[in-house]
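Priority: medium. Attachment 1 of 2:
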């Protein structure tokens, strides 16, 4: 796993201030923080990746040290990488983590994912 454990600790401390349903998973070659069964923040090496609202994504994409997540040659709208001075301070990292947590509250799970509390979709078959 290639992530900075100190950066992961700093993220963890911020997330637990606002969320109780947090699971840590190794994903994307780093450590991801799943909040309410949805990817919220991830860290790999010295950068973070976050899931933001479409509106916030477009605005924040213009900032220094920010780049879009590219997967299989395709830009993943809503997912940003952030690196550099903006995440080195407590205030800077807190701002980014809180933006991700704000969106997590209203975000839908990724397609194909279903939370344990969600009902199963109808199959179209009638019970005999």
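Attachment 2 of 2:
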């Amino acid at each position: 796993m290639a992530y900075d454990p100190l950066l992961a600790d700093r993220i963890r401390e911020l997330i637990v201030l606002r969320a109780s349903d947090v699971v840590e998973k190794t994903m994307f070659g780093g450590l991801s923080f799943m909040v309410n069964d949805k990817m919220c923040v991830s860290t790999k090496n010295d950068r973070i990746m976050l899931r933001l609202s479409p509106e916030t994504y477009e605005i924040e994409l213009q900032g220094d040290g920010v780049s879009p997540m590219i997967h299989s040659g395709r830009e993943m709208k809503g997912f940003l990488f952030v690196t550099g001075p903006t995440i080195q301070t407590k205030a800077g990292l807190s701002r980014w983590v809180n933006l991700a947590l704000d969106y997590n509250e209203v975000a839908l799970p990724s397609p194909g994912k279903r939370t344990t509390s969600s009902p199963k979709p109808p199959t179209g078959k009638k019970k005999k």
